[in-house]
Design a protein that fits this description.
Chain lengths: ~140, ~260
Amino acid sequence: MENNPQQAAPVSVDVPLISNQSVLMNIALIKQYHENMPIAQVEPIVFNALRRLNLEDIAYKRNPDLNDEERFFAMLLRAVMVRDALVIIDRPFKIIPHLKNIDNIFQALKSIEDLYLNCHIYDYEWMREKYGELSK
Amino acid sequence: MVILENIGRAVIRLIKSFTDIIYFAWKILIRIFNCNTYTSAMRTVLTDQIYFTSVQILPIFLIVSIVFGSLLIGVLFLQLKQLGLTQYIGHVLMGFIVTEFSPFITVLLITLRSGSAINTEIAVMKVNKEMSALEAFRIDAINYLLVPRVINGVISIVLLSTLFSVTLLGSGLLFSNLIFGMNIDAYATVLLNSASFSDIVVALLKSVVFGFFIILIPIRFGLQASHELTSVPVVVARGMVNVFAAVLTIEVLSLIIKLL
């Protein structure tokens, strides 16, 4: 992985948000830790990303206060904060079980496409119909 | 034979637990003195931790130190007067209150409040797979989570035990005036004459060691939680018992160092 210019950035039910930190701090953590960016510098970046998904109001909420969609998009934004991110979405319908199809997620990925290099979605074969055109 | 076997097993377990904690302490110490540990993320956690441990506790801590301290100083001074040992008032204040009593009470308060909270927090993070989440994003849990908490323990204990000492010396001023009719100049002179530099150094070092271990041990036991929720109370109980054993051990060791 270290020789790969793309850095794996997982979005998975097995990679949860840190529950004693707000969404803002969870997303900011990646740049604070890996790029040593001061919080004052990261905050506008995080708010800009949240604004693109119309989620500014969740910035100061913690994991238990989020609904499934908010939690998924917070995890997605955390993943795209990784430099040269290869976003790996693992079974998205496990994180948002009531979602009918992938359209919502696909739309969100489009609106932040400049923030990551590549995105792979992994799911079970029997979930194929939820992906519609994408699965063909 | 069975008794001997059980004793042997218990001793081996004790030695293993002790060496584990010392090895873990060594790992944390190395990180504390490594500049690369101090990332922006780590500094944010450190600031939060100092706020939770040292600032949030201030109102209750001040109330406890004023009420409990005044009571203790009042009783102590009355006893000194009755026994005709007024000349030892300075030694009692500096030798007992500042160097022994203040760090000990501060450690007990912080252990009960923050030690148990940190033990539970780390165990719950382990159960919730949040540690694995950090790993998935290549974030070192020792640098990000553990080192700031341990440094916070050291800073908080040193600052709060100093505050406790100052509050008690303030009570001492009041009671020395009420019981012995001492004015502020006489009180200050008595304190300065009784103050020994080595005592203050030992008290500070003791606070540093206390702060380091009362946070390190709960963290160590918190990390031993499995992915089952039922493991949380087990590791918290084990961690708190060990932290109290460590407090007593450090207290005894500091006494031995003072006697040497």
